[in-house]
Specification:
552 residues; mainly alpha; 23 helices; 0% strand
């Protein structure tokens, strides 16, 4: 019983080490890996090569699947190219399996020691996250050694020997067990390494071991499908296509197991090497066979999972992909895209507001006020999504971006509230009582509104690109807008002294309206502050300057 418990603990340590390496690599190099994938999809062959490289670093084809699936959802990568990336990703994880199959146990204490020192001394920095990766690698190597020693002891037991002697190959059962283990462990890499170690120790005969390897590959494809079940259709298409490759590969490879053993066994004495080479050969053969038919499989998948009609409001692509939460940089990107959609809704409300002021369209006013509910819902959804991203997983740049998104969505939500109140005032004080602004007053409102739209577009650009120059320009527009609002308030008072009837009737509404437009502009210009603050471009406040001047 003790030896069995030791074996289970070693397996758990192997899975945990794999998890540490995968998450650590994504935290340190997540943004860079995404850029590599995005730039390497000019054709199916470069896409496959990029998949090999990225997955060799991440050590998880599932993680690569989630990244490239998000790219398809964002329209950055076509589905056939994404499927080519996945064919390469499976080769990448197979290559890492071969590397870990060598006796690297001597590196385990070195990796763990150096990793712990780096992690403890600089925990929240890149150095600390690299240390986390080294700890994971050390634990994986340590776990493989523990699995080997535990199985060596267990195989000496008469009970275990009798059990192994009674084993008969049942391929369907082996594939099912391998797939289940890969899903539970969230890693086909860990299961293949475990199978190779057990085969080397004589715990599992070679033929059943290869059946488990096929199951682990199938489980890897199934894991991607299960992980993206709640994502957008475009995101779900990539894992489904990869699962199709895996399933067809298992069907073709299953009858070849005996042939493989007869061909390779005379030249390779080590059972573990036979297992990992079979895993590598399976995925290389998969890529060679199916790289030319990615277009065909893409059409199948598109037929099985058709894209919804984007002309329908309910069919709008939501960018808050739950599967992206495992990759912090990707999740931040998803939240930013949803925040831009929130800004688009606010712009629609803002443009419609001027139409209501000009035409007294109460029906349009009611529709625009309902849109504020959408703005509020988007704010809540984005905020909740961001709270699910672990702050420990965020680098300094990602943490700043996290704060920028929260600030941006708060400003958009407050702008929506102001527009809703403006529309209520317009309806109560203008439309229902049949009043109109004077020509001069309407011209002033139109001028302020046009500047407001321009500033909103500039603010969205600042949020998207983080340009310090545009952020400075936005703050300059804040001062200009304030001066213009004061000037128009003064000219309105001048019109009142001239006893202009329309100006007198709408005086209160006019003053409130240009004040509300100024408040909206202030929220828009607030987008610039985080960008300028992070760049060290913010000047001291006027209040502090005035105080210092008075003291001197």
């Amino acid at each position: 019983m003790k030896h069995l418990l030791n074996l289970l603990a070693a397996i758990a340590l192997l899975v945990w080490g794999t998890h540490l390496v995968r998450t650590g690599i994504l935290r340190v190099f997540g943004a860079s890996l995404r850029q590599v994938l995005a730039r390497s999809v000019s054709n199916r062959y470069t896409a496959a090569i990029s998949g090999i490289g990225v997955t060799a670093m991440v050590q998880s084809s599932t993680a690569t699947a989630l990244i490239v699936s998000a790219f398809v959802g964002q329209g950055l990568v076509t589905l056939p190219m994404a499927l080519a990336v996945m064919l390469g990703a499976d080769i990448g994880t197979s290559l890492m399996t071969v590397v870990f199959s060598f006796d690297l146990s001597w590196l385990s204490p070195l990796f763990i020691f150096v990793g712990v020192v780096m992690f403890i001394s600089r925990q929240s920095t890149v150095v600390g996250r690299v240390g986390r990766v080294l700890i994971g690698l050390g634990l994986m190597l340590l776990a493989l050694g523990l699995v080997s020693s535990s199985t060596a002891i267990m195989t000496q037991s008469p009970t275990v020997k009798a059990l192994l002697a009674s084993l008969s190959s049942d391929l369907l059962l082996e594939v099912t067990v391998g797939a289940l283990l890969a899903v539970l462990a969230y890693s086909s890499l860990a299961i293949v390494l475990l199978t190779a170690t057990l085969a080397a120790a004589g715990m599992v005969p070679l033929e059943p071991a290869l059946g488990l390897v096929l199951g682990a590959n199938l489980g890897s494809g199934l894991l991607g499908v299960l992980t993206t079940t709640r994502s957008a259709i475009e995101v779900r298409q990539v894992p489904l296509g990869n699962f199709v490759f895996k399933a067809m590969g298992v069907i073709l490879a299953a009858p070849m197991i005996e042939l493989w053993l007869r061909t390779v066994r005379p030249y390779v004495a080590d059972a573990a090497t036979v297992v990992v080479l079979f895993h590598l050969g399976f995925n290389v053969a998969l890529a060679v066979l199916f790289i030319g038919v990615v277009q065909v499989v893409a059409r199948w998948v598109t037929h099985w999972l058709p894209k919804p009609d984007r002309s329908l409001v309910a069919g709008r692509p939501h960018h808050l992909d739950p599967s992206a939460l495992a990759t912090p940089s990707l999740a931040i990107s998803c939240a930013a895209r949803e925040a831009l959609h929130q800004a688009d809704v606010v712009e629609t409300m803002m443009r419609g507001m001027l139409t209501v002021i000009k035409t007294n369209d109460s029906r349009l006013a009611a529709e625009l006020r309902k849109m504020d509910d959408s703005v509020d819902e988007l704010y809540s959804a984005i905020k909740y999504y961001l709270t699910k991203i672990s702050h420990e997983a965020l680098g300094d740049e990602e943490s700043r971006r996290w704060t920028d998104i929260i600030s941006f969505t708060i400003n958009m939500e407050q702008i929506g509230d102001i527009i809703e109140r403006v529309l209520i005032d317009i309806d109560d004080k203008k439309i229902k009582v049949g009043r109109n602004f004077s020509d001069a007053g309407m011209a002033e409102i139109c001028e302020l509104h046009a500047r407001l739209i321009d500033n909103l577009r500039l603010g969205m650009s600042v949020f998207l690109n983080g340009s310090v120059r545009d952020a400075q320009k936005l703050l300059e527009e804040k001062a200009r807008f304030r001066d213009l609002e004061r000037a128009y308030s003064a000219t309105h008072l001048t019109r009142l002294t001239g006893n202009t009837v329309q100006s007198i009737e709408t005086s209160s509404l006019h003053i409130d309206l240009i004040s509300d437009l100024k408040r909206i502009n202030s929220h828009i210009c607030s987008i610039a502050y985080p960008i300028l603050e992070s760049a060290g471009a913010l000047a001291p406040s006027r209040l502090r300057q005035a105080t210092l001047t008075g003291e001197s």
